[in-house]
Amino acid sequence: MSDSNSDSEVDTKPKIKPSKLKTIKNVNVAFKLNGKNYPLWARLMKVAIGSRGGYSHIKDKPPEPERHRYADWEETNLVVFSWIVDNIENDIIADIAHHQTSKAIWDNLVVTFEGKRDPYLIYDMEDKAIALRQGSMDLETYYRRIHRLWINVDRCRKQPVDCCGKGVKKFREFSNTMRLFKFLTGLNPEYDTIQRDILKEEPYPSVEEAYGRVQREATRLKIMPPASPKTSEDSGVGSADASSRKFGYGFGAQRDRPSNRNGPPRSPPTGSSHQTEGKIDKIKLWCSHCDKNKHTRETCFLPVGYPEWWDERQKTRAQSKLAAVGIKEIGQK
User: Fold this and answer.
1) 85 phi and psi, to 5 degrees?
2) Domain locations in the chain as residue ranges
């Protein structure tokens, strides 16, 4: 009677149909366990096993061998066992293959790798997170890298507060604030405006929320980049240049602008035209940045930088002037 009751108790528990697991020959996650990637590997492996109906084989104790349908359980257990082994590097398999059940091998991996909190490893990951800057990376890559470091730190480090719900909540808020600051300080200068807006909020948003807002700002900057200052096209003299803080002339009025501010307007040289075919008369050009003729603000060397040949050209001019002065002095003697 007792045997029938025990059998009925076993039968009332959720059963895994052997055929369901046997038809799945191979289960492979993104990478194999190598001893350094256990936290993420265990998460992926648990999802893979559980989604195929084999989670109880790594969670529950195995039934007694004399129980009813033990043979069916053993067959499915071997299937789950093979899934785990197929996703472990060979040098680790040699140390754990002696276990008889999938739960035994899973528990051994937990003791070997999950309980290992190396302070030097945590220090290295924290140091990398602090030093990380966006630089040439796009926004998504920068966030993904720093977020991955934080996840690995949390998996390796024991939480310092576990006494009560309030203590855990305060610690999480403090940790989020520190990581929010780190994320924002690592961004490139084009996100300074959204950085200031986020830091004005109280309470601070989560790092995930801040990343979403910065991502929207990045999309906006791609579609609507900051407008570059342009010279106003006024018909009169005295249009303001916003970047140089000087007063200049619109392109429409440049033809009436005096080329000599201390004297009467100069006429173009004899034989020259305002605009020859295929060429622009540089005499009519004027720069609102340096207030000189024969070029415009767009081609001015002061804001855009001097070309490589500029120094050599200046040396040649200086030598020519020195030579001219020497010849003049010899003639005077």
Assistant:
1) -65, -35
2) 2-114, 119-223, 228-264+281-305
